[in-house]
Every structure is written in structure tokens, then in C-alpha cells.
Design a protein that fits this description.
The protein is an all-alpha fold and 304 residues long. It has 2 domains: 1-55 and 157-304, no CATH class; 78-156, no CATH class. The chain is 72% helix and 2% strand. It contains 14 helices and 2 strands, in the order ααααααββαααααααα. It has a two-stranded antiparallel ribbon with strand order 1-2. Strand 1 (138-140) and strand 2 form a beta hairpin. It is globular and about 70 Å long. The model has no long low-confidence stretch (mean pLDDT 87).
Length: 304
């Protein structure tokens, strides 16, 4: 749920932002995304918390020893290391610049700082600067050791980025060849959807269903181009539909295969499959209604 709030929270967010920019010419920065998604994230968090509390009421009383265990674990971490401090510094710099780029969109035309940021920086450039900073910040001057070394950088799972880029290329082909449009038109005709908000509700539900059986990255690469192509053909505003589909894709509560955290919880042996499926179906339903309702309620405010 927390991954909904920022562009870097989960891969479908970045995929959707990329498709909106490339296929619909709608750029969304870090701060504008948060202004849209953060209220929805908070509402979904409340819905999930209340639903789980009602389905699985706690009857065991107060757990003893929790505070002592947490304190023991915290003390075992030890003091902050130079590498940890440097990483925090790089992340804080990136976050500050991402937010500043968003604020620059609302700054008056005469604001020099805003013009400078918009001309020389982008969200991707900021991420590269933060990564470069990790190569430059030392952890031990005498030994010539830095926060990130090239040997460590080579061991990063670059295959994930290739999967991400390949998915974007595939989605772009689906859009430009007309396949996405044909699929979208078939869906509209088959289900009789005639309004923009009906379409938004439909694709949000489809995103929620797709992600239960495949990874959210694959679901986003398959669904978002279809959503954008269909919205263009039908004359609908593509932004709320794409946002709804993206947020729905991030909801995966029903099956252990839906997302790795589900598999970890199920693998503990303490959560039966029936309990996970029952709670997951209700959570999918309630969160789908919450996302669709808040998009319809708040979208006019964001547009203004």
C-alpha cells in the first residue's frame, strides 16, 4: 500500500509515468504524483487496517516482551556507519531535488531558481546525480574506500532494469501498431462502457485482477498502453484511467503467487490459504471502490 504514494515506491508507478509522457504527452513529476496518490494511499491504508481488524480481531490481550525484544534488536544495530550516513545524505539530496522540481511547476515565471531547475534537471538526472554522489562520498579517506565501488555496482541486478526497459518498448509497440487500441475497443464494446469514469472504474478493476496472477511490472506493461490507446479512441481523459489502472495493479492481496510479500507470509505457515483469499478478495473490492471514488472526487481539484 505504501508504494502507491511516490513514483519510486513501486515499478508500475514509474512505468505509468513513462507511458503517460511518451504516449499521451502528459508529464508527471515527483511532487504532482504525491499530491494525487498520497491522499488515496492514506485512505487505502485506513480501509486495509479496518478490514483486517474486523476480519481478524485480536483476542490474546497484550503481548509481553515486545518492547524488550525491539530494544534488543535496535541496540544490536550499533551506531551509524559512515556508509549509512552517506547513503542517507544522497537519498535526502535526491528527495529534495525531486520535490523542488515539483514546486518549480507552481513557481511564478520570474522565479530564477525554478527556471534553472526546469532547464537543467529532470527526475532521471537527479537519480543519476544521487548515484554518482555515492561513488564520491568516502567512508575511509586513508584507505581510499568510498560508499559505492564499481565492483559493488557491477553486482547490482541490472536485469531488472532491462526488464523494465523491455516492457516499455513492448508497450510502445502495442500502442503504435494499434494492437492496444483494438484490445481496448473490444473491451468497451463487450462491456458496454460509455463514460470516462465508467472506463476508469473498469480498468482499475482489471488492474486489480491482473496483478493477482502476474507480476505488477508485467501487468503494468500490458495494461497501461491499452488504457491510453482506448482512452484516445473513445475521447476520454487518459490521466484518471491510467492512474486508476496503475493504483489497482499495485493491489495484490488474494494469492501467495500475487506478490513476494504474500508468499513470505504464506510460507510462515501461520496464514491459511483460505484466510488469505477471503481477506484478499474483500480488500481488493474495498480498495478498488476507494481508489475509483477518490479519483472521481478529487480529480477535478487536481485539474484546477
Amino acid at each position: 500500500v505504501g508504494g502507491l504514494a511516490t513514483p519510486i515506491g513501486t515499478p508500475p508507478n514509474l512505468i505509468t509515468i513513462g507511458y503517460l509522457k511518451e504516449l499521451a504527452n502528459i508529464p508527471i513529476g515527483f511532487l504532482p504524483w504525491m499530491l494525487i496518490a498520497l491522499p488515496i494511499t492514506l485512505a487505502v491504508f485506513v480501509v486495509v487496517s479496518l478490514t483486517l481488524r474486523l476480519l481478524f480481531p485480536w483476542t490474546e490481550g497484550r503481548l509481553e516482551g515486545v518492547e524488550a525484544f525491539l530494544e534488543q534488536e535496535r541496540s544490536g544495530l550499533g551506531p551509524w556507519t559512515p556508509g549509512q550516513r552517506n547513503t542517507l545524505l544522497a537519498f535526502a539530496m535526491a528527495l529534495t531535488l525531486w520535490l523542488a522540481l515539483g514546486l518549480a511547476e507552481f513557481a511564478p515565471p520570474q522565479a530564477v531558481w525554478a527556471a534553472f531547475l526546469k532547464e537543467h534537471l529532470s527526475e532521471g538526472t537527479v537519480a543519476l546525480l544521487a548515484a554518482l554522489l555515492l561513488f564520491l562520498l568516502p567512508v575511509d579517506w586513508r584507505q581510499g574506500r568510498f560508499t559505492l565501488t564499481w565492483r559493488e555496482a557491477v553486482e547490482i541486478d541490472w536485469g531488472t532494469l532491462l526488464l523494465f526497459g523491455g516492457g516499455l518498448a513492448l508497450g510502445d509497440l502495442l500502442f503504435k501498431t494499434g494492437v492496444a487500441s483494438l484490445l481496448g475497443q473490444a473491451i468497451l464494446r463487450g462491456l458496454g462502457v460509455r463514460s470516462a469514469w465508467g472506463f476508469t472504474g473498469l480498468v482499475t478493476l482489471l488492474g486489480t485482477l491482473f496483478t493477482e496472477f502476474t507480476s505488477n511490472t508485467a501487468a503494468a506493461n500490458m495494461l497501461i498502453p491499452v488504457v491510453l490507446a482506448t482512452a484516445r479512441e473513445a475521447g476520454f481523459d487518459p490521466l484518471p484511467a491510467a492512474l486508476g489502472a496503475c493504483l489497482g495493479i499495485n493491489l495484490a492481496f488474494v494469492l501467495p503467487i500475487s506478490t513476494p510479500p504474500n508468499a513470505i507470509v504464506y510460507g510462515s505457515g501461520r496464514v491459511p490459504l483460505t484466510a488469505m483469499a477471503k481477506a484478499g478478495l474483500l480488500l481488493d473490492l474495498f480498495c478498488w471502490l476507494t481508489i475509483w471514488g477518490l479519483l472521481r472526487l478529487l480529480y477535478p481539484v487536481w485539474v484546477i
